[in-house]
Design goal:
The protein is an all-alpha fold and 513 residues long. The protein is built from 17 helices and no strands. The model is unreliable at 194-200 and 485-513 (pLDDT under 50). Its main location: membrane.
């Protein structure tokens, strides 16, 4: 049942809190493990190549199975998939905190990534099918995505404290929260009143080729640094990825019940949101990697100092969350994404001033403030745009697509940034050698963010053209309607003509598409 009420019931709020808790835990887990890596390596005796898989194992499971997780939510039931995956996440967290070998720890991380690949699209699609498209959904998604950003920021600080006690607590601390969310979810998340599955079959061939292609892509870009980007192993792996995706497209075009209805990409909002998600999270992941190395290795900051340095970005997101729903309603997702990417590009560009000595107020803080503004504007807007105009039966698919874009973008850009840092430094450990690796990496991140800005600008231009065309069509259809111009100051504004909102995406479907 979809709600359009302005006042939400206690049960509706409870459902949203449970979904937010799951996303909060996903983000918390990603940020907490990074700070604990040195302690994990010391206690378990891991090599550098093995240690990276503590992070990459999670990304592999998450990014590789998100698309399948989204479709599973549509076919098997969003509530069922969400609750089962949340239980698996809690069990994997407990297991990860108790293991005594690197292999088992990596296995637990992979399992947690798989669980998150099912909770994320299922949770997002529960929101988009529970809250009607428009102000109610915008408000819910703003709260939801803010919890994810807050979890990431809090995880940076919390991990610094917990690691001082013992790295295992970074794995164990999410367990009670996950169990409480699971118990509350069983009671509060409503059951689907009608059948969620609309087709008569499962696209097994599509699931195998899509999941195999995504898993191999994430694995290839993660391993490319060690094997070499031009090595036969990397080239053959990338060719295999291309073959799998080509097979996937061929299967989806011929099957009666596809895993991904390819025509969903005819929805301009969905396509642009996924491209922007690739650029947004990819650049942020790459930037955080470089900034962490610079602050801790070159400037000698502690893990806790570094985490506190990133905190202003999270605080800005949390503060802005109380107004983001109204802001989206007023300005629309397209304009907010442009503003967010502009802030992102400026924040990265300012960090190009890094040197052997750098002050927090003069160097780091301005970038953190701009990145915080970008996160506050872009993350809710991307999720709203990626699910706008999509039927309830395919909300899991749309949610899985945008989450896949976030994760795959992060994995690919991070791999390239790591290669740039390594090549630029030439393996040197001097301050200048490190800077020679960091600066081109930040420049790369800035360039990718600029491409994202151009893509979002193109969306604004297309939306404006469609709105003008629709307004002219309305003027022809209604003789008394006067097209807005200098001589008709009392004529309706473009916002009024599109249904009371400044964003064409909120107007009628013919205008929006």
């Amino acid at each position: 049942m979809t709600t359009t009420e302005e006042r939400w019931s206690p049960r509706l709020w409870g459902t949203l809190v449970v979904l937010c808790a799951a996303l909060f835990l996903d983000a918390l887990d990603v940020s907490m493990v990074g700070v604990a890596l040195p302690s994990i390596r010391t206690e378990l005796g891991l090599s550098t190549s093995s240690l990276q898989w503590v992070v990459s194992g999670y990304v592999l499971g998450y990014g590789g199975l998100l698309l399948l997780g989204g479709r599973a939510a549509d076919l098997l039931g969003r509530r069922r998939v969400f609750l089962i995956a949340l239980g698996v996440f809690a069990a994997a967290s407990l297991f990860g905190g108790m293991v005594d070998s690197g292999g088992l720890l990596i296995a637990s991380r992979f399992l947690k990534g798989i669980a998150a690949a099912f909770t994320a699209p299922a949770g997002l699609s529960i929101i988009t099918t529970t809250f009607a498209e428009g102000p109610a959904r915008n408000r819910a998604l703003s709260i939801y995505t803010t919890c994810g950003a807050s979890g990431f920021s809090l995880g940076l600080v919390l991990s610094g404290v917990l690691t001082e006690v013992g790295w295992r607590w970074t794995f164990l601390s999410p367990v009670p929260v996950a169990l409480l969310a699971l118990a509350a979810g069983i009671r509060l998340i409503p059951r689907q009143t009608g059948p969620e599955r609309t087709g008569g079959g499962y696209d097994l061939a599509g699931a195998v080729t899509a999941t195999g292609g995504l898993l191999l892509l994430v694995y290839t870009v993660t391993e490319a640094q060690g094997a070499g980007w031009a090595s036969a192993r990397t080239v053959l792996s990338l060719l295999a990825v291309a073959a799998l995706f080509a097979a996937f497209v061929a299967v989806e075009r011929r099957t009666a019940h596809p895993l991904v209805r390819l025509t969903i990409f005819r929805n301009g909002s969905v396509t642009r949101a996924n491209l922007a998600a690739l650029a947004f999270f990819g650049t942020y992941t790459g930037f955080q990697f470089v900034a962490t190395l610079y602050l801790q290795t070159l400037l000698g900051w502690s893990a806790l100092e570094m985490a506190l340095g990133f905190l202003p970005a999270g605080v800005l997101v949390a503060v802005a969350s109380t107004r983001m729903g109204a802001i989206v309603d007023r300005f629309g997702t397209s304009r907010l994404m442009v503003a967010g990417f502009a802030a992102l590009v400026a924040g990265y560009a300012l960090f190009l001033r890094i040197g052997v000595h750098g002050s927090y107020p003069g160097l780091v803080l301005p970038s953190m403030i701009l990145i915080g503004v970008a996160c506050a504007l872009c993350i809710p807007s991307l999720n709203i745009a990626a699910t706008s105009g999509v039927s309830d039966e395919e909300q899991g698919l749309a949610s899985g697509l945008v989450n896949t874009s976030f994760q795959v973008g992060g994995a690919v850009v991070l791999a390239v940034v790591t290669a740039v840092v390594t090549a630029g430094s030439g393996g040197g450990t001097s301050a200048q050698a490190q800077l020679d690796g960091y600066r081109p990496a930040v420049a790369l991140v800035t360039g990718v963010a600029l491409l994202g800005l151009l893509a979002t600008l193109a969306g604004v231009v297309l939306d404006r053209r469609r709105l003008v065309a629709a307004t002219r069509a309305a003027a022809v259809a209604v003789p008394d309607y006067r097209y807005p111009g200098p001589e008709t100051s009392d004529a309706p504004s473009p916002a009024t003509a599109s249904g009371g909102t400044a964003d064409p995406a909120a107007s009628a479907a013919s205008i929006r598409r």
